[in-house]
Give the backbone structure.
Amino acid sequence: MLKLIKKNKDKGGKEARSRTTGKSQGISSPGNALYKTIAAALGGLALVLLIVFAYLMLLREPGLTSKQTELIANAYAHQQATNVHRTIDLLRSRMVKAASTPLAQTAITNQNPEQLKAAEDALMAYFPDVLSLRLLPVGEMGTAAFEGGNQGLRNHIEVDLVGRTSNREATLPEAYQSDGAWLTSLAQLVEKPGVDSHNAVILATLPNTSINTLLESLDRNAGEFAVEQAYISPSGVEKTNVIASTGSAGDKKYTRRADIPGTAWRIAFTPSDKMISELSGSSGGILVLFALCLVAAIGAFALIAIRVPRTIGNDVNRMIAAADRKSELILDTPELVPAARQLRRATLRAIRTGNGVADPQTDQPEAELDLDADSLELDLSLDTPDIPDSFPAHIFRAYDIRGDARSELTEELVSQIGRAIGTMAGELGEQSLLVGCDGRNSSPALKAALIRALMESGRDVIDIGLVPTPVLYFATHHLDCRSGIMVTGSHNPKTDNGLKVVLNRQTIAAGGIEEIRDRTLEGDFSHGSGRMIKEDVIPAYVEEIANDVAVSVPLKIVVDAGNGATSDIAPELMAELGCEVVPLYCEVDGNFPHHAPDTSNEDNLTDLIAAVQREEADFGVAFDGDGDRLAVVTSSGRIVRSDVLLMIFAEDVVSRNPGADVVFDVKCSRNLTKLITQHGGRPVLWKTGHAFMKEKMAETGALLGGEFSGHMFFGERWFGFDDGMYAASRLAEILGTHGETLDQVIDRFPATVNTPEILIPVDDRGKHALVERIVAGADFNEGRVNTMDGLRVDFAEGWGLVRASNTTAALTARFEADSTESLENIKNEFREQISLAAPSLEVNF
């Protein structure tokens, strides 16, 4: 602790009273502007939260509930219509077969009333649900013979049915009331080929209670099922009768109808109050979330109210303590730097004029400083370990480790990193780790160093060989091993390499990567002697997808593996699905001789486009170096941007799973939000990065996710990790099932003017700080600013984005608008804002 002792005495020889506890000397603070600002900010935030949650409770949630209820009601109506249709068809088929028996044929041929009656009685045993069954021979003139009246038919409806049926007219089932009960009759002509005189009409009448029983085959608690039959009233107005019903109805506004094929009927389904209530859910969760957000906001502002004055107070104490010295002074509050400089100038000036005693550091008199000695303790602790200049800390990125394999990510460093990961895995109770690598020239040596290091840390290793990254992810589910490390440079240049780490089936992101870096620096590793075995999981991977995906119509697909890790597996998988495969660059070569392994660069798709058009293929796919990214081109050679591809997947997944969450990154089109909402799903905008996306999907329970860079994540029918090959398989399934070409599917979506991902080269170590400066100085008066990941601004006519790349030494930008003119206007606004923060940066858009 630094203490400064007051030495001045007053005229009477007594110590002068400390000015800090005396009068104000004309300096005072009647109010606390900091607390007022915090209170105003808290009030504004509370108002915003109130508006947001009111919107969710009063508008968005009821709207989504209504849409979901309508979709479910429509599905119930169509399913029940199908059930009734099948039952009627089955009854007709059984009637024909029954009338074709020898007993019935003899009775029809002889037209003997007693034989006909005996045949009818015998046939009734085969129709327990039928009220009556009549065999009526057709006369020589082609109509049913009626002697002495209607031959016991109930009414003119049955007479009309028999007459029209005998004349070979198509007749539909007719429902009518008889003695206060609803009955249904249907007639079927039974013909004996070549013998017209042996034809007959079989008429079956059944009580509509049997239709009620059929309607109850679905959950009657779900709502009311009613069979309606239309008729024309004497006044000429079409009306309907309910001829059968079951269950109880709720709000009639949700009633949905479906025609029953082969009848003049339709099914009307109205959800019950219970179903509507279950779909509506409770607003309690939203209220609890609102309360939590409000409490968190209050807590955050309280923390600010406590920490900021304390920080300022500490800085002031440091300023006072160092005012008479020329040593370096570092403050936590930049706004106090000018005041510190001014105080030091005044203090040193006073010393030079002789108003003080000697200071051993400056060899100058010590100034009289009016201080509270107890407040001058200095905290010199550090929050992070020292990082040597030779240590490439920048290769520890947001969600993986990646650098130049020649000078940065060397075998020695990988060995140290391996020991750190092995130590962390052991602390988590993970004894075994999977290890795989891609086809880069540096990968085998780095993988060998990694395996040795893991074994030396005491971990067992399962070596799965040269595989795409998704196969390693799959292996964490297929084998009895939940953790692994992939040696891969992904889509980076051939000289780079890296590590993707999975612990307990979770891809390690920023916090975990920082811990690996710190453990590597500290060098405090566990020790042991692990074992290694080898496993081939590729056959199981191909079989798993082949059992899940069904391509109805064989398609012709060009597969561009780019000489990466998918070279052997992707063509085999597509062929296993029944597709005709045209391989392109499907030989593993770590030099990537034909094009770079980056599918997000559209220049690398030129050869694929040419091959698809030359081969007249249905579509083409390209994979990056480790197979977790997918790029697609249509038969006409159009590149399918990944957010458009995600629209295709979202339509498919959400149609089967109303209300499902779909996660996508900030680089994606806002048309994606509209499409997901229109199909009853929930759009979730999130940060770019495969680890961040997987975390958000796990958090929300989303069934689908995607990034503009080409990562696709399927939680429906798959394991939720990014897998370019599985995504290509699902695309083939969709196109093969619906019968549309990929061009036709894309043409259904709204057209916009947009750019690909634009890379702006910058220094790798300063890119995040640069984006922070751009965000801090941004002023978009007419746009809605989102700083979740970089700077995204939405305007009425489009949007723009600039952010720091997590994987390359660049800023990434993207723009979309309704017209070319609007797109250029948005670009201009971004150019101006970027130039203010970084005047020397060359913007290439």
